[in-house]
Amino acid sequence: MTAPAAGSLCGIWVDRDGTVHLSHRTADGGRLASSVPLRPFAWLAEAPDDGAFAGVEVRPLEGEGAFTWIAEAESLSTYDALVKSTRGGWACDAVKPLESQHLLRERQRLFADVSFGQLRRCQLDIETDSPDGSFSDADKPEDRVLAIGLRFGDRDRTLVLAEKTDAAEKALLEQLNAVLAEEDPDTLEGHNIFKFDLDYLRRRAKRLKVPCAWGRFGQRAKFRSSRLKVAERWIDFPRCDLPGRTVVDTFLLVQLYDISTRELTAFGLKDVAIHFGITPADGGDRTYLAGNLIHQAYTDDRPTFLAYLADDLRETKGIADRLLPTYFEQVKTFPITLQEATLRGTTGKIDLLFLEHYFHAGRATPVPPEVRPFEGGFTRSFETGVFKHVLHFDVASLYPSLLLNIGRNPVNDPLGVFIPLLKQLREYRLRYKRLARESDDVEERAEAAARQASFKILINSFYGYLGFSGARFGDGELAAEVTRRGRELLQGLIDELQRQGATILEADTDGIYLSAPDYFEQPEQLLAKASAILPEGIELEYDGRYDAMFCYKAKNYAIYDGERITLKGSALRSRGMEPFLKRLSDSLISHLLGAGGESPADLVVQYRDTIPAGKVAIADLAKTEVLSQNPDAYERFIAGGGKPRRASAEVSLRMQPPPRMGDRVSYYILPRQKGQTSDWQRANPVGEYDPLQAPYDPKYYLKKLEDWVTRYEPFLDAAKLGPTEQQGELL
């Protein structure tokens, strides 16, 4: 074993012999390796028989709980045997993965004194080719990796296939190994890097007998099937773990980001880059290449081919710049690796903090309690229509503030960790929030802003943790008490704001939107009057003002700040909406909010004329959806009797080259034929549109238009007028 090196931890990996390999940052920004022995441990519900496990020390823990014993093993093999013998039920509880176990025991954190700018990052993107023009398949001998794009900071190191031979491709893969060993990055970042780039490279490397030596400490990559829950759906992917490094998949991060914002209409690299402003909406100088033209560019126009790859890397870095700092800051709080931070739910992270306190205090730990259903938070829409002079007030961290105000720890937390920990995190957040606002150093402000955002997420997660059935220290009754007080507090605020002359528009635990012409220029006056009724420790914040707000229905509204319109709710911004309907909706909302643009009423008349005449561009009618399955997997699903059949999936079966899961597929609806009762039977790829041989169905799209008119008819006349002082009487 080597002695621990000085400097912050930047990487950790536990091998099968029970050695902890560590990578430390040196004073000049380099990385230095060291190793120490692992001392694995587990909590037990009862002590094993004397002599049952040689090399295991078992000692009792103080207090009551399900796990009243702690077992510490001399070796990893002994530890594995112990854990295996206790499988089933709640006989044993252990921290996973072993890297987290070591960090917890030693009370260490990754990147503790490293700024985000000091992180050694690498973005990766590959371009591939199939000679027959179909979608490139790594298992086909003749398919190739054409190039591997790598970006380190502002430096691109693009590795290009010299010629289309096995020897040249093998040399390319070996060159990748050498560059990663030389540059020694902490992270490997890519968009859909798990499902495509790394998996494709793995399969080519296997065929050409090249080790995937992408990890630190001379180690190879490890692959396994995994899944990530995003809201109500699961995403399956081939996970890649690199010993001592972190794989960051921005394709997954943007979907996690969109759970709360609901702003993204697609998750592809180019769409997300435009959404975040990394690339201008009109494309700017960005190089675009259709998939079927990449091979031609590689052969005949190498500068364009390389520019396209460089732009992919630039956009990947830009997205990671935006989303990764929150997770980077989390590893400074939790005993967890950066890769686990991006792929693990908040409940598991908070559990680790509790377990760390209980482990070092020598206290017994509980099993997750049963949490009964309880009434949720306050959510109510008060008005429908268009309103001017809109203010947004927010109760700062409402539920965490109420928890601190109540001051009661969960029933399963006899050590009293919960409230002090919440208070500490809140103090950290306020400190960094102040620093982000007041620091004269641009980099320090950015770092502080990322930290306060991370702490805000953690703080707000403490309430959700209480009510989650899988949380060891959960407490459903305390969670119910918090929501009850939250409802009472918000109702009290609403009553007071109405007493002061405000019109309440929308209210929930995220804040209150209200129309208040008399206070629009001095919102702090209304803020002060409303804050007077709040209990100590609960703070109301002014969070912005808007020229106008369109309230459509509960949790579906649009706000306009004079420059930008922001939409909330799936009814106003469905990802699957056809472009012509989106154009209508956007123009309606723009008119209602006084932001100008086309007249929606005129557009309706125009579409009523042009749709039957076959004069609408097919791109305006086509529906675009993201494939949730690869075409071959969908085909097997249907052959096995699976339902329902999906139009986008049916279309994907006829496309060449075939798209893959996660790709966007555009299709339109053909005129109905005898025996056709469902849309999937009439769906046709946009690429096969022919106004004579394969026209769109005008009746289908006219019905779509009239359904839209019926839905928004009460607002169409008002759209010509723009927002009035109060237009709630529209309905």
From TrEMBL:
PANTHER family listed in its UniProt record: DNA POLYMERASE CATALYTIC SUBUNIT, DNA POLYMERASE DELTA CATALYTIC SUBUNIT
Enzyme Commission number(s) from the entry: 2.7.7.7
Q: Which UniProt keywords apply?
A: Coiled coil, DNA-binding, DNA-directed DNA polymerase, Nucleotidyltransferase, Transferase
* Organism in which the protein naturally occurs: Actomonas aquatica
Q: Which reaction does it catalyse?
A: DNA(n) + a 2'-deoxyribonucleoside 5'-triphosphate = DNA(n+1) + diphosphate
Q: What is this protein called?
A: DNA-directed DNA polymerase
- Spell out the InterPro entries in the cross-references: DNA-dir_DNA_pol_B, DNA-dir_DNA_pol_B_exonuc, DNA-dir_DNA_pol_B_multi_dom, DNA/RNA_pol_sf, DNA_pol_B_thumb, DNA_pol_palm_dom_sf, DNA_pol_type-B, RNaseH-like_sf
Signal sequence bounds: none
The UniProt transmembrane annotation reads: none
Tell me which residues make up the DNA-directed DNA polymerase family B exonuclease domain: 117-254
Coiled-coil spans are: 425-452
Q: Where is the DNA-directed DNA polymerase family B multifunctional domain?
A: 416-711
Which taxonomic lineage does the organism of this UniProt entry have?
Bacteria, Pseudomonadati, Verrucomicrobiota, Opitutia, Opitutales
Q: Which family does it belong to?
A: Belongs to the DNA polymerase type-B family.
> What is the superkingdom listed in this entry's lineage?
Bacteria
